[in-house]
Structures
1.
Amino acid sequence: MKLFFKIIVFFLLSAQIPFAFSASLESHQNLKAAAHAFLTTQLEGKKVDFNIQIQNIDQRLKLRKCPVDVGIKLMQAHVKPGKNTLNVECNSDTPWRIFMRAQVKLFTHLVVSKRPLNRGHLIQENDIQLIRTELTGRQSAYLPRTDQAVGYIVNRRVKAGDIISVNNLSKPLLIKKGDSVTILAKNEDFQISMKGIALMAGSYGDKIKVKNIKTKKVVQGIIIDAQTIEVAL
């Protein structure tokens, strides 16, 4: 009977050893959760949707349970679409450090062409739409609002479904060199207009040189429409 009792005690104690050893180690799942929370905090507040996948930690890696909060930081300046590396470390009397990989997908709504647009086409509101798009691997400056494309000219042919890039667009030329224009000189209390000749070509908002026909004086002004250049008094 005593022998049987000793055997039972032995098995009970043996079963507790792995449990005690396991309790003294960091949970890989908890570390993954902490990494996910860290990246989520970094991305919150940005005008993008995101998806985060944390790479599994090698099961053979045994890490002592950290008595303080585990420190997590990026190995680059900011979270980027695609692969990100995290430095995860325990700053205690028995420190350790590992590197974890995370795959991040960023999504936002970008301006996309509804139909084929030929080079030189002046974009109208019904030419484009916003579509949720993954940003991973995209390098160009894309447009998140349709008003950023309306009124611009397409530099090259665009297919239906193509994302509209800033590099695809240019401002329409409103005034050509030699055009007759109205020079509008104004301040808060006073304005006067006079006839002039454009000495440069330009688009809306461009600053160009213009000559006053009467005085022959050359001034600089901002194009506000196809016939008018505004000069500050």
Note: The longest helix spans residues 2-23.
2.
Amino acid sequence: MNDPIKILGLIPARYASTRFPAKALADIEGKSMIRRVYEQAKKSSALDTVYVATDHEAIAKEVETFGGRYVMTRADHQSGTDRCSEALEKIGGEYDYVVNIQGDEPFIHPEQIDECAGLLDGKVELATLIAKVHDADELYKDGEVMVVFDKNHNALYFSRHTIPFVQSVQKKDWMKHQSFYKHVAVYAYRTDVLASITKLPVSSLEKSEKLEQLRWLENGYSIKLSETKYDNICIDTPEDLKWAIKKIFKA
């Protein structure tokens, strides 16, 4: 009988942010953003352990106040993936996978974490979520990351441009002819793969799109996809936070 898959949940939370400094500590109706992310992650039935991976004592102290676990990491990491790799090394333990839960998504659904974790069978190298686009405005939204995939739900390409292109059809009618999917950034890494991908140099496509997952694809790694019905609210700016509070608590 095979041993059960053991999964570590990590929430990368850096202090510095050009558009929203110290946003992990921002108050959301009486709770900090990092607390809300942590509490949602703890509701997942798939994670064996949850840690916040941070670079700042103020965030560490906040995690301590609500009884959470944290691990200190360097401040110079270029991505949450790199921070997760260092955190895993420091935490140790015999984990098969790491799930990276974004530190600026305080309303993430625990079911999304479970959906991503449900793909992890020991053979899957990397996994993430996608959601079908139903709104034409969202299809052409600046910065929205789109994805195309093969018949086995393995990612073929991610782009900040609308993909695929529908030839000989006006853009307003594209959704009548083709289904489109956006990326939902919950990542899972097999632990040996996590150690490897963080050592890879930045790739050509990654430089162009500013998407680290393209580095993995360019180097031959496969990314398994699971479709979720849930939508995420990512907080990038103080304006995003005001909008989210109004939407969630004052609707």
Note: The chain has a mean pLDDT of 95.
3.
Amino acid sequence: MYKPQFQYTNGIVKSLMAIEKYKNTVEMLPLPKDIEKELRKEAKLKMTHYSTRIEGNPLDLEEVSEVIMKRRDRQGLQAEQEVRNYWNALSFLSTSRRLKIPISEDFVKRLHSIIEVRGSGRRTEESDYRGPMRPGVLFAVYDSVTGQPDYIPPEANDVPELMKSFVAWMNSEEAKELPAPIRAGIAAYQLLTIHPFYDGNGRTARALATYILSIEGYDLKGFNSMEEYYVSDLQGYYAKLQMNLPVLYYNGRNDPPDLAPWLEYFVLIMERAFQKVARIAQSKYTYQIDPRVNKLGPRELIVVKLLLSKNGDITPKEIAQEFNVVTRTITEWAKEWMKKGIIEPASGTERIRAYRIGKEFRDLKLSDLGYVETDK
């Protein structure tokens, strides 16, 4: 079974901690459904545009959006078909996530078949691995400027066993014990190293990493897109993938090298992408929220949410249970809340047995706080 080699560096650990911070920020910010839908669509467009741009697709983001909106199947220019294919692949991954489809060789082949479908006619359900080249032809990844091989992958007859070993590792307990960002980074690297298909390996590897992150809850509600950062630093992206290793697979890559340089780069890009998403989510959240709500502190926000959810009076004991404190503590906090007009007594004046929301806040709805109201 494939066994990746790496050591945690200070850079990797720092980025993993930052990723968790930004992930929690996004998860805790409630946004209206229309805003979430807008952010997910924008992220999906960016993933489609930038992942195909890495492979030389000339369409810009606006053109990609127009192609997707046409909803035409396998018609038009090859560049249009490429972006439409990748869009469909991301939809396939979204469905697979909902259905909890595990990663297998068949899954990878199916994903690739969607990414690489060409021309008219019936789609193949799964791609085949690449076969032997004709005599005198070298299968390699070539430098677009010099024409020299950048990387010579393993021979075709070794691909099936390498893929079997790789997928077995991805489903192993050893792999599942790793942080999801590390596992996704390793998966992207190893699929590119094996290069199991004639074309589309880069897009398939990035899509596979996206799927691993999404099933582990690291897709930031579908708002995340790392590919644009790769495009902004393509030379760095390729250099980190190469890690100064020999061009020929059998000269050092077959004995798993230390992946720390690549993983440090992968999680750093992920950190920057997550930071951007967190900022956008925070901006959308602040913009959408009622000005009165923006003045509320964290505890006050919880109390208002609780009162709006109850749609009536609430006892000090119920509030105490929400904060996991004793009732006496709530009585003290309530004095400040009443001064601010957030709450007012619902029964009694000296010994208050229940509170209701203050007059200034009485017309608020949960959606004004950024929470999605329960569908009826």
Note: The chain has a mean pLDDT of 89.
